[in-house]
Design goal:
Layout lengths: L3 H5 L2 H9 L8 H13 L6 E5 L5 H13 L4 E5 L7 E3 L5 E7 L2 E5 L7 H8 L9 H11 L6 E5 L2 H7 L6 E6 L5 H12 L2 E9 L7 H12 L4 E6 L5 E5 L4
Parallel strand pairs: 1-2, 1-7, 2-6, 7-8
Antiparallel strand pairs: 3-4, 4-5, 8-10, 9-10
Helix pairs in contact: 2-3, 3-4, 8-9
């Protein structure tokens, strides 16, 4: 049983401490919202699925909530590009291609990463470790979440092909490829496993990513399978799967 001190420490302070040195772009208010949703789904069946994990910033927060509620795993889906996978385009922006089990995957091709943010925020990650997957695993190990977090190197297509037919998801966080086609694909892949009352969340919603916005509008807001659609923070949009009549 947790000690009184563990119970009374504000969750947002604990989150801030845990992700302090983990690279990523999710702000504290968004991480706190994800934690709350994960924590409040303790009575639902199923696990948590994250599409787009990067170095594990949001994964750690979701894993923290899963560990507290018990009997829940967090499946983290990412292509985890290595340093050699990044390519510089003719306009000096960056994209990457990853080969997994003989299959080629690409990302940041429609909306590329501009040279300045790449060199300032992404390139330094690879100065000490050329493998993003190793960085992710090290962050998970540091916070003692190896028994909770299950990484999957690939995309949502490959993930749903790997899970059993009775797999259930109670919370899905979609933060992978931001193109319209990719987001729609992620939604289609996950929603069939999302239990009644389960939540689906999106990063970078209704900000500067037209593909994300359009996919949410068409696949979630205009879909009667979902209710309580709401922009929760500046970038985080959530919706709950309702019971079909």
């Amino acid at each position: 049983m947790p000690t009184l001190n563990e119970i009374t420490v504000p969750v947002i302070d604990e989150i801030e401490r845990m992700v302090k040195n983990v690279h990523g772009w999710l702000p504290l208010d968004q991480l706190y919202t994800l934690f709350q949703l994960a924590y409040l789904t303790a009575d639902l069946q199923g696990d948590i699925v994250e599409i787009g994990s990067w170095c594990g910033r949001s994964s750690i927060v979701l894993g923290m909530a899963a560990k507290l509620t018990g009997n829940t795993h967090v499946y983290c889906i990412d292509l985890f590009p290595e340093k050699k996978d990044w390519i510089q385009n003719s306009d000096d922006s960056y994209s990457f291609n990853v080969t997994i089990n003989g299959r080629k995957y690409g990302a940041y091709h429609q909306q590329t990463v501009w040279k300045e943010p790449f060199e300032e925020q992404i390139a330094p990650l690879y100065e000490q470790n050329h493998s993003l997957f190793d960085i992710f695993k090290a962050n998970i190990t540091e916070h003692e979440l190896n028994d909770i977090i299950c990484p999957f190197k690939g995309n949502s297509d490959g993930f749903v092909q790997s899970v059993p037919d009775d797999f259930k998801c109670k919370l899905a966080f979609i933060d992978g490829d931001h193109s319209y086609e990719a987001v729609c694909c992620d939604i289609e892949n996950i929603k069939e496993y999302l239990v009644t009352g389960g939540w689906i969340c999106f990063d970078d919603a209704f900000s500067t990513y037209d593909g994300v916005n359009r996919a949410i509008e068409e696949c979630i807001i205009e879909n009667t399978d979902f209710e309580f659609c709401r922009q929760m923070t500046r970038k985080l949009f959530v919706a709950r799967k309702q019971k079909l009549h």
